[in-house]
Amino acid sequence: MHSSAAMERLGAALKRLPGIGEKSASRLAYFLLGAPDGLLLELSEAIARVKTDTAVCERCFNLGESSPCLICSNPDRDAALICVVEEPADLASVEQSGRFRGLYHVLGGTLSPIDGIGSDDLRIGQLVERVGREPIREVILATNPNAEGDATAHFIADRLSRAGITVSRIASGMPLGGDLEYADHVTVGRSIDNRRPLA
C-alpha cells in the first residue's frame, strides 16, 4: 500500500477476510481512514461484540442470540424434517427461499481430505445421534453441489442408511460448483422442492 505502518497493518488484516484481495483491502483501508469517527466506533464495537453476543444453538448449531435458536424453539416448525447444511450462511439462504418449514443441522463445513478435514471435524456424529433420539422422518442433505459437498452427502447418507428414515439430496436446481450462500432464493427453493432420495 506504500503508506503508514498502521495502514499497512490494516490492509494486511483486511486481506485475511474471505473474498478480500489486495486491491479491495487497500480501498477499504483508505475508506476507513477517511470515514467519520462515529462509523469507525460503531464498526469496531460491532466486531468486538460479534463473538460475545452470538450463541451457537445446542441442537442445530445455527448462530443466534440464544440457545436453542429461534428456529428450533418455534413450535410451528416440522421437527420431523431436518435440512443439513454446511454453514449458517447456507441455512439463511434456505430460510429466505420460504419453502422449508422444518429444522436444520449445521455441519460446520465439508469433508476435505486434502485439507485434513475428516468426519470427526464436522458435526456428523451429532447428526447421527440426533436422528437416533428425535422422531425424524426425513433428512434433506443440502450440502453444496460440488465435489466436497457431494462426498459429504454420500458419507452422511451411508451413516444414516440403517436409521429407517428417508434421506434425500437437494435437486440439481443448484448449479454444479455453486454455493447456497450466493444462489438466488428461487433456485434454492426449487432445489428444496425437487429434492430426490439419495439412499
Brief summary of the model shown:
By secondary structure, the chain is of the alpha/beta class.
List segments where confidence is low: pLDDT < 50 over at least 5 consecutive residues: none
Query: Based on the structure given, which CATH architecture of the largest domain is correct?
Result: 3-Layer(aba) Sandwich
Bulk shape: elongated
- Average pLDDT across residues? 90
Textual characterization of the structure:
The structure is a single chain. The chain is an alpha/beta fold and 199 residues long. The protein has 2 domains: 5-49, Orthogonal Bundle (Helicase, Ruva Protein, domain 3), CATH 1.10.8; 58-197, Dna Topoisomerase Vi A Subunit, Chain: A, domain 2 (3-Layer(aba) Sandwich). Helix content is 42%, strand content 14%. The protein is built from 8 helices and 7 strands. The strands form 2 sheets. The protein has a 5-stranded mixed sheet with strand order 4-3-5-6-7. A two-stranded antiparallel sheet has the order 1-2. Strand 1 (55-56) and strand 2 form a beta hairpin. Helix 1 packs across helix 2 (22-34) and helix 5 (88-97) packs across helix 8. It is elongated, with a radius of gyration of 20 Å. The termini are far apart. The model has no long low-confidence stretch (mean pLDDT 90).
